[in-house]
Amino acid sequence: MTQQTPSRGEHLRTALALAAFGVPALPLRAGKVPFGNCTRCANNACGGRPNMKTPGPCACSGPCHAWAAATTDPDVIGSGPWRRAWLRASAVAYHPGGAGLTVVDLDNADAIAWARKHLPVTQTVPTPRGEHWLYRGAMQSANAVRPGVDIKSTMAYARWLGPGTGTMTDLPDAVRALTAAKPAAPAQASVKVPAPGGGGECRHRTPAFLERGIAMAEQSITAATSGVHNAVYTTFLAVLSTHGRCGCLTEDHIARLFTAAQNKGETARHCSDAWTNARTTLGL
What we know:
By secondary structure, the protein is α+β, with helices and mostly antiparallel strands. It is built from nine helices and ten strands. The N and C termini lie far apart (about 60 Å).
């Protein structure tokens, strides 16, 4: 039997149904990736949307910020900009962390066999290559926590492929331990941005602007589905171009960026090289 492709109208109806159950939804374009920033929001010019509860100054009315644009507001989902996006959408996605959920994305038969042996039974959704195991509870997202296994929860999106089967259970410690076991970035503390005189305060932006920028940079790296090396470099470049000369970046900010990159599979060495190259490009 040939599987029929859902219509754009069906995508919209699915998103509205998810929103009614408290699941933040968003459209995906061809390639199953989020819609990119509009002109006003390019290069984080708007300040971004760091999380679902505090959208910040961005007034963009379209699905412009990947997982952070996911919403449960039916008026937003059905608005003009979103309706135009639905006309181009190829799939529906949702923000698991925004719904208090965690998705264990099992990408192949070996990963499924491992999960059946080591994880509690829960609600299961078939995917084109494997299965999504859904648990009640949110946690940090991370890719490649083991071969063929990704964790999608906060600051990430997952494709909506139906409700699946089985009864959802609480997020087990065995899943949380998968990200805890991932190595931290050892080179983070050694990478510093020189602070100018006067205490190194950001003289042209507020602390809130910096926080939004770092959060959006983390999101940009996390949302990359291909070309991760380039995504990491260009994100580092964008952050440094805005804050690299004012001295407001701290080791904690840099550590957050490195951690996001390493959660996408980057090595500590590549993070350091990308950071150094971005600084060199900007003459820092």
